[in-house]
Amino acid sequence: MKTLRFEKPRGFALQAAAEFYAGFIPGSGMAAASADGLTLAFRLDKTFEAVTVALRDDGACLVAECSGTIDTHLLSRQVGRMLGLDADANAWLAVGERDSVVGKLQAEFSGFFTAAKASPYDAAAWGVISPRMNMRAAAHLKMAISEKHGDTVTLMGRVHHVFPSPQQIIDIDRFPGLSDVKLERLKGIAVAALEGKLDADRLRAMPVNDALADLQTLPGVGPWTASHILFRGAALIDGLPTAEPRILHGLGDAYGIESPTVEVFARLAEAWRPFRMWVCILLARHLARSGGWNKPVLARERAAAGRQLRRAAH
């Protein structure tokens, strides 16, 4: 076990991130919140080692007890990306100072910066497993795959199951509850990960539209999944996820705009730079808290958004 220390950014609260992960169904099995900290279990960037990190507050610092790798530099970068520790905290808080609605959202979710998926690989796996399934059922299936075919990491006496590495996925012949089509797509994602196509640094360095188009060449990856991989898996700080209509609904509710368009969304978002994606996460959380997360029209709107993005790509 190794110990890492992170300087706590101004305004950041670990418990705010833990609260998010506690209710984040797609992250089931990846994150465990407690009264005094947050534990994350995931695959390390590039090497795909299974790692576990237990974070707690220690005054002006965050202390992380880690197990599963000796590459603490890579691990520190990944944890920083997931929680937003690598961003300019003053610049983030300044967005709320110049846009009063964002300021209210920052106050509504006090201390929250971001809380991303562990990696593009993890986000892609969820994007393949979850379609046409109840989210909780998909989360249980993903955890079952982790327990059967993944690795275990023990940290401070607790055993954590980590979703299989790409090579472990390739070696699976079949799995109860996972269709043959989804398994083949999951294996295609695994191959892409081994080839470096899902590397977070690579995707973050690309222009957003190029990255989205590139991701949609992967098996089973359409506009929504590509957006999920890029924005939530690679944890972009700035960008507009137009494939997810919930953001528009959250925007309309927060700003008091009836049926806002993508054009209105883009115009308002100019004031959020360079944290447009972080604001979008707050808008989605605001919508969920206000009871609008499961509106009946969302599935139809998501399909329409996907068709529009496909046309734009061609």
What does this structure look like?
The chain is an alpha+beta fold and 314 residues long. It is built from 15 helices and 7 strands. It has a 5-stranded antiparallel sheet, with helices on one face. Strand 2 and strand 3 (37-43) form a beta hairpin. The protein is globular. The model has no long low-confidence stretch (mean pLDDT 93).
Main beta-sheet strand count, sense and barrel state: 5 strands, antiparallel
Q: What is the first-to-last residue Cα distance?
A: 50 Å
Strand order of the largest sheet: 1-5-4-3-2
Helix content: 40-55%
Number of strands: 7
Mean pLDDT: 93
Net shape:
globular
Low-confidence stretches: none
What's this model, at a glance?
Helix content is 51%, strand content 14%.
Distinctive features:
314 residues, alpha+beta, five-stranded antiparallel beta sheet, globular
Provide the fold topology.
Elements: E1 2-7, H1 14-22, E2 31-34, E3 37-43, E4 50-58, E5 61-67, H2 72-83, H3 89-98, H4 100-108, H5 120-129, H6 135-149, E6 151-155, E7 158-162, H7 166-170, H8 180-194, H9 200-205, H10 208-215, H11 223-233, H12 245-255, H13 262-269, H14 276-289, H15 298-313
Antiparallel strand pairs: 1-5, 2-3, 3-4, 4-5, 6-7
Helix pairs in contact: 3-4, 4-14, 5-8, 5-11, 10-11, 12-14
